[in-house]
Amino acid sequence: MPLNDLEELARIAFDWLWATDAKDRFSYLSPGAERLLGRTPESLIGCARETLACEGEEANFAHYRETIAARRPFRDLTYVYRHPDGTPRWFEISGRPHFSPEGDFLGYRGVGSDVTEQHRTRRALVETHAQLSEQNRRFDAALENMTHGLCMFDAEQRLLVWNRRYLEIFGLPDDAVHVGMGQRAIIETLVALGRYKRGATVDAISEGTRTSLTGDGSKAVLRELADGRVIAVTHRPMVGGGWVATFEDVTERRRNEARIIHMARHDGLTDLPNRTRLREIGAELIAALRTDAEAPLAVLMLDLDRFKPVNDSFGHAVGDALLRAVAERLRGHVRGRDVVARLGGDEFAVLSRVEDAAGAAVLAERLIETVAAPYALDGITVEIGMSVGIALAEGDVPHDIERLLKEADLALYEAKTEGRGTVRLFEPQMDETLRERLGLERELREALAQNRFELHYQPLVDLSGNRITGMEALVRWRHPERGLVSPALFIPLAEETGLIVPIGEWVLHQACRDAAAWPDTISVAVNVSPLQLRHRGFVQSVLGALAASGLKASRLELEITESVLLDDTEANLETLHTLRKLGVRISMDDFGTGYSSISYLRRFPFDKIKIDRSFVRDCAAQSEAGAIIRAIVSLGASLGITTLVEGVETEPQLATIRAEGAQEVQGYLFSPPRPVHEIAVLLEAGLGSEERSAPTLAA
User: Fold this and answer.
1) Of 211, 314, 331, which is closest to residue 270 (Cα–Cα)?
2) In the chain, fewer beta carbons within 10 Å around the N or the C end?
């Protein structure tokens, strides 16, 4: 066949023709080669093929040289060609040896093709396959290491994917489920194996899934298992049909939350209802009184006589044991439907249905006699007394529980004034006490006008380095006759009268001025009342205090209690969010003393939780108290919130709190509240062992 015909054939089947001499140097290249090689055929005549290859092609050419030396034909040899434009090209060549009629070796003749695109495509496929394999490996690893169980179903409710944790949660063998198994069939298997709580049916569980999928998927469905565990199941629809279901064992979390909620409404020492729960029960009983013509409701306020000397003489352990013993006696000497509550300290309350005032008085006398009997506590015999104030609610007289508690409190005040072991029934003339409070209010206004308030500071201690990181500002009233007046006496009155707003503003400004003189690492915490937060100008007041003092917003911490969020919640939340955006930190004080504390953590991103001192007293001796602190600390950690424990007074308490994982503490073990002129010295000294062992710190 003529050469031109061969070249035409080459253009169809291959990209170019080539020929080499006996020394493997190009002797011929077809004209079409220039387009792909980037060089003219003439410029390549006499060049060895290897000189045109990219570096690193030695392995390919070793086989090439071996083949040529053996004068064997070769096919589809690929090498990387060094193109003049600097980019590599992949060429594929085939050739046969060429001999003269006399049998002399003349060289090789063959064809070549540019397979760059095919090579890149193959490489892309290999890389894609490798990536997919790696993604699958990671997916499998993630799936099998999830703490939650997982199942994925297609639009036909057929199982596509599941993980080992799902099988573990329900105690299923590996072969219990398979790809393509219907969701209803899986439920039937679980019901047949008795995995769900008795009474659960296939239809009910299937309907629960359907209902969950029609919602927004954010709310988990709780499934109770036969062994007592609770599983939270979340269903999230997928685009194109089907859904992903996740299964989380929330048994321990629900137990912890139940404990926290119980502790929020019950006294940690005696397990009696606390003031919050007493108000709830009292409101229910008064409502029944109005509608059902029930017998009169008596509210008895009980205050122990001589408790403080016992507590001071024999220590808190004996004092706490005495309070528990009193609680048991009170519980044992009222009727089953009566309510005994502990309001704090040595103060208790009883709600009881009585025939009349005389019946209430008889109950009070019986309780006094019961409490007055001697107590044997760890080899110590203790005797105390009790005074009682009574308020009565009858069906034809409008009452509310707050008013009744105030009346009973006024009656208790009169009883204690008359002497120990006394019972007094509320009488209208006792309102004289209110007139005295008006006098106190007048003096409080004068104190505000005449600048008779001052701030004391108590350190906030970081347990990781046993160092002071902040100070809580505590207001004191220096009365010209009474000396320093405790905030427990005047703050409630300031709250009632609205004076807390100007007093709080003064505290805020003064605390910022004082803190500005401290090291930059020390923050200042200021308590904020609900009235302050609701005040229209509160945000501007905070900004003004920061600007006037030059204190950075990040060094100011505002402490609120959940009562701030009980009323006008949305407005208060908006104020808190505004302050937080400005850099001010927000903490929840007295956490756990209100039954809504947990829900508020979900509604606002608090920076810190301050665990109430009522949880601390027994934490070193009682595992239950320690478990509550551990649960709160764990809750805080899961939400990214710092936890601080208040009221730390002893080394055993500190050791327990440290073991439970709290980050910060506060209490007399480290330092009592101190006037501002002592703070600089305290900060200079830090919290060394000498300071920790000083009597004033252990008080």
Assistant:
1) 331
2) N
**Boundaries of domain holding 105:** 3-114
Q: Give pLDDT, residue 419.
A: 79
List of residues 6+ apart from 565 with CB closer than 8 A: 572, 573, 596, 600, 603, 604
Do 160 and 244 reside in the same domain of the chain?
yes
pLDDT in tens, 185-238: 999 999 999 999 988 899 999 888 888 888 765 678 889 999 999 999 999 998
Q: What is the pLDDT of residue 36?
A: 87
CA separation for the pair 387, 300 (Å, rounded): 10
End-to-end CA distance of the chain: 116
The domain that holds 37 is classified in CATH as: 3.30.450.20
232-241 contact pairs (CB < 8 A, 24+): 233/209, 235/209, 237/213, 238/152, 240/155, 241/154, 241/155
Q: Contact at 8 Å (CB) between 350 and 334? A: yes
Distance CA 341, CA 276 (A): 10
Rg of the chain, C-alpha, whole Å: 42
- How many domains does one find in the chain? 4
Strands 375-377 and 339-344: unpaired
Alpha-carbon distance of 171 to 193, in angstroms, equals 10
- Asked if 401 contacts 279 with a C-beta cutoff of 8 angstroms, the reply is yes
What does the pLDDT look like over 289-308, one tens digit per residue? 777 667 889 999 999 998 98
Residues 299 and 394 in one domain: yes
Same domain, residue pair 239 and 277: no
Query: How far apart are the C-alpha atoms of 581 and 225, rounded to whole Å?
Result: 44
- Judge if 240 and 292 occupy the same domain: no
What six digits make up the tokens of 277? 């729960």
Q: Which of 541, 528, 628, 626 is nearest to 572 (CA)?
A: 528
Distance CA(16)–CA(110), nearest Å, equals 9
What is the spatial distance between Cα 645 and Cα 599, in angstroms, rounded to a whole number?
20
Q: Which of 71, 66, 16, 58 is nearest to 38 (CA)?
A: 16
Distance of CA 57 to the CA centre of its chain: 60
Rounded to whole angstroms, the Cα distance separating 170 from 196 reads 9
- Burial string for 15-41 (b: 16+ CB within 10 Å, else e) reads bbbbbbbeebebbbbbebbbebbeeeb
> For residue 693, what pLDDT is reported?
36
Of 314, 332, 316, 334, give the one whose Cα is nearest residue 383: 314
Give the torsion through C-alpha atoms of 499, 502, 508, 509, to 10 deg. -150
Distance CA 574, CA 518 (A): 31
Nearest to 269 by CA among 628, 632, 611, 614: 614
| Spatial contact of 475 and 505, defined as CB atoms under 8 Å apart | no
Same domain flag for 683 and 597: yes
Q: How many CB atoms lie within 10 A of CB 343?
A: 19
Task: State the Cα–Cα distance between residues 168 and 208, nearest whole angstrom.
Answer: 22
Cβ-based burial of 623 (10 A; exposed 0-12, middle 13-18, buried ≥19): exposed
Among residues 88, 117, 109, the alpha carbon closest in space to that of 7 is found at 109
Question: Do the strands 88-99 and 74-82 form a parallel or antiparallel pair, or are they unpaired?
Answer: antiparallel
Which parts of the chain have pLDDT scores under 50? 1, 595, 687-699
Classify strands 585-591 and 608-611 as parallel, antiparallel or unpaired.
parallel
Asked if residue 254 belongs to a domain, the reply is no
Give the model's pLDDT for residue 218.
65
Residue 26 phi, psi (nearest 5): -60, 130
Element (H or E) spanning 493, and its range?
helix 487-497
